[in-house]
Amino acid sequence: METTETSTTRATARHTDEGDQAVAAATDVPQTRAGRHAAARRTRRRSQRPLVIGGIVAVVAIAGLAWALIARSGGSDLPPGVAAMGDTLTRGTAKAGVKVLDIYEDFQCPECGQFETLHGPSVRVLAESGDLLVNYHLRSGLDKDHQGDNSARAAEAAVCAASVGQFGEFHDQLVANQPPSVGAGWTDEQLSQFAKDAGITGAQHQTWQKCVDDGKFADYVASVEAGAVKAGITADPAILRDGQPFTIAGLDAASFAKAVTGK
């Protein structure tokens, strides 16, 4: 004959096992990386809904755990013109024999915003005239410091813009609309509006939006950040000319253009 204590212990064990199974089911992620990415976006949107029923709190807590497991997973495609993971996006079409400028920047980085405000117009003109080969390394390291995914989301959106031929324009929209503080990021609606303001409209915008929603270039963005870390880039912006560190301190717009092109 079972004692009351034994019966209670077995009931508690059964309750614990059932709870563990429920959590495991809730946090089970789709098998494909693109599926995990799409599920992550759905989870984030659901988690933004008002909580009015006590029981929903537990469900959302489990969903939050699932989001932590699947965040920033997605597709492993390469953007047009990029040969391998970790390679850069290039702005414009450079003439033969020109200098090469590598720009490492995080769209949330205030110093990167300052660089773009002062020297971005010169970089744009030189890149689009073909007088400078400009490579962008879109970083997302600030996400780790601020426990978010805003830098990666912005970088992925920029790569999606590149896939429809509007990288430069979308890049400029992002740097012109930096969030008020690091970690604040942008809403999905803001990124969509930046795309429209960059000239991505109609069917092209639908293609861009699907690319963003599917996380088509999530792996590529992660590979660029990993490459920057491997290269020893510890601060942004980092500027290299022909593979060597390039000092921008003390340069105004005119002297920057001269110094960077060697003309």
Write the layout of secondary structure elements.
Layout: H1 4-26, H2 33-47, H3 54-70, E1 89-91, E2 100-106, H4 110-129, E3 133-139, H5 142-146, H6 150-163, H7 167-176, H8 188-197, H9 202-214, H10 218-230, E4 238-241, E5 244-245, H11 253-261
Parallel strand pairs: 2-3
Antiparallel strand pairs: 1-3, 2-4, 4-5
Helix pairs in contact: 2-3, 4-7, 4-11, 6-7, 6-9, 6-10, 7-8
Give a written overview of the molecule:
The N terminus is likely disordered. This protein is globular. It is α+β, with helices and mostly antiparallel strands and 263 residues long. Helix 6 crosses helix 10. Strands 1-3-2-4-5 form a 5-stranded mixed beta sheet, with helices on both faces.
Please outline what is shown here.
With 263 residues, the chain is α+β, with helices and mostly antiparallel strands. It is built from 11 helices and 5 strands. It is 57% helix and 9% strand.
Labels describing this entry:
263 residues; alpha+beta; five-stranded mixed sheet; 11 helices
Low-pLDDT stretches: 1-37, 42-72
Could you tell me the number of beta strands? 5
Helix fraction, binned, reads 55-70%
On the 0-100 scale, what is the average pLDDT? Answer: 80
CA-to-CA gap between the ends? Answer: 96 Å
* Strand residue content: 5-15%
Which structural class do the helices and strands define? alpha+beta
Number of helices: 11
Shape: globular
Strand order of the largest sheet: 1-3-2-4-5
CA radius of gyration: 23 Å
Largest sheet: 5 strands, mixed
Task: Return the string of H and E elements.
Answer: HHHEEHEHHHHHHEEH
